[in-house]
Write a structure and sequence with these properties.
By secondary structure, the chain is α/β, with parallel strands linked by helices. The protein is about 40% helix and about 15% strand. It is built from 21 helices and 14 strands. The strands form 3 sheets. It has a 10-stranded mixed beta sheet with strand order 5-6-4-3-7-1-8-13-2-14, with helices on both faces. Strands 9-12 form a two-stranded antiparallel sheet. A two-stranded antiparallel sheet has the order 10-11. Helix 13 packs antiparallel against helix 14. The longest helix has 24 residues, at about 300-320.
């Protein structure tokens, strides 16, 4: 395997300078990365791979986010700009698992990781029960580093499939231990509960074990952004007990923004760490809560998390511009919820004046409002829901909330969703709260991208990555 003799490096003042600014929230400056030229496919061999996953993204979600960004800032999304400029290889991808036309995230990401279709719910175990080798192992054997960045728990299905083996995806305590045993170099996201002695079923303090193995532990956005001049080669960043809050809630709540970095900020930090390996790396970055917004039929949540993911395409474009030996893949594992913008009014003439003010008016996810319901006085909660969703809660509805809270799960959030009636308010509607089976969008650029056909199966990406990295 050949390697670049003098791979370009990005200084902290250069590539990471944006990390110290206003949280990498969307801005014309960041959006300007879309005008940066992408170099052509210079041969087949890549030093590194960046794999970006907008988990659960329907094409309707992607379209809605682009329209909304145009409304908000007169910008197209990075993903759309790539297509406008014809700067990338573009494909449609079939997402089936071994036992269903509609996949879950565990089977879908395992298909990328191993090149084998498996049953829904498993991570890198074949239908016959045999254990499959995750791509992390092959990348590690090539001398490269690996990193997993996500807005979900870092032990959730998509990142886990790149490095772990469990027969049931819910075995997240086991996945957290496997990451340490298998020496995944960078882990950034949510899911602190799977590493803490207080919340793990076995009572083991995995955070301490990671630190003893040389990982730098990061537990706040400030720690992530202000690590000092040193650049640790191994990072464990855990910024929330479970999944990270939705971007809409992070953007609205200063206390959340102070604690939780954006996905783009985590990606930049991961690149800063991984690029120290002269042989290269594989970095998987997941906008995992797009999927959750689809499950919850939550328009505000899904749009803002899709835009937060789109910022990562700008980061990848910037990085690959400075490191042209990088293969970048951008895709989703499956659709979720069937999100679509529908025509409103006679001749659909009311569509624009429905969707944009409607989404502008949404100030919280249903999940966030459910989370604060137990801690607020009745009148406080009524006022909050009125402010964030423009929904009135009368005495009857208040009693329904109390009953829903006793049921647990997402019962309170589901009530709020039904009262909100986002279809009438925004024109956005859903087919279900389940995953969907349509072909999905994929684009790629850099060495090896030309090997991707215009229509592929999810398993086809595994050999593309293997060939590009010259994995044995």
């Amino acid at each position: 395997m050949k390697h670049s003799q003098n791979p370009a490096s990005i200084s902290r003042r250069g590539f990471l300078s944006a990390t110290a600014t206003a949280g990498l929230l969307w801005s014309p400056t960041l959006a300007g990365c879309g005008s940066m030229e992408i170099r052509g496919d210079d041969g087949d061999e890549a030093r590194s791979v960046i794999f970006l996953v907008a988990d659960g993204m329907n094409t309707g979600t992607w379209t809605l986010a682009d329209y909304y960004l145009q409304h908000r800032s007169k910008q197209r999304t990075e993903w759309v700009q790539l297509y406008q400029e014809r700067a990338v290889t573009r494909a449609l991808m079939e997402t089936c698992s071994a036992n269903s036309r509609v996949t879950d995230s565990a089977a879908a990401a395992s298909a990328w990781s191993t090149g084998v279709r498996i049953d829904n719910g498993a991570i890198n175990f074949a239908p016959d029960g045999s254990e499959l080798e995750p791509i992390h192992r092959r990348v590690q054997q090539s001398g490269r580093s690996t990193g997993l960045v996500t807005t979900t728990r870092v032990t959730h299905a998509t990142p886990a499939a790149f490095a772990a083996n469990v027969k049931v995806r819910g075995e997240e305590d086991t996945i957290a231990r496997q990451y340490l045993e298998r020496e995944v170099d960078v882990l950034l996201g949510g899911g602190e509960k799977n590493f803490s002695a207080q919340t793990r079923a076995d009572g083991i303090d995995l955070k301490q074990q990671y630190q003893a193995a040389g990982y730098q532990l990061l537990q706040s956005r400030d720690q992530l952004l202000n690590m000092g001049e040193e650049r640790a080669k191994r990072l464990l960043g855990l910024f929330w007990p479970s999944h990270l809050p939705y971007s809409i809630d992070r953007n609205q709540q200063p206390e959340i923004a102070q604690q939780v970095p954006t996905l783009a900020e985590m990606m930049r930090r991961a690149l800063s760490s991984l690029e120290q390996n002269r042989h290269g790396f594989l970095l998987q970055v997941e906008g995992g809560r797009i999927d959750h917004g689809g499950h919850g039929n939550d328009v505000g949540a899904v749009v803002h998390d899709q835009l937060a993911f789109d910022e990562c395409i700008a980061v990848a474009r910037e990085y690959s511009q400075q490191h042209p030996e990088t293969l970048v893949i951008v895709t989703t594992d499956h659709g979720c919820g069937g999100c679509q913008l529908n025509g409103m009014g006679s001749g659909y003439r009311d569509t624009d004046q429905t969707v944009f003010p409607g989404i502008d008016a949404i100030g919280a996810s249903y999940e966030y409002l459910q989370s604060v319901f137990p801690s607020l006085e009745t009148e406080q909660f009524k006022a909050l829901v009125q402010q964030r969703l423009q929904v009135e809660i009368d005495e009857k509805r208040q009693q329904e909330l109390v009953v829903a809270r006793a049921k647990g799960g997402y019962a309170v959030a589901n009530l709020l969703r039904s009262w909100h009636g986002s279809y009438a308010r925004t024109g956005v509607n859903w087919t279900s709260g389940n995953h969907t089976g349509e072909f999905v969008e994929l684009c790629a650029w850099g060495p090896g991208s030309a090997a991707i056909g215009q229509w592929i199966r999810n398993t086809d990406l595994h050999p593309v990555i293997g060939k590009a990295l010259q994995l044995s």
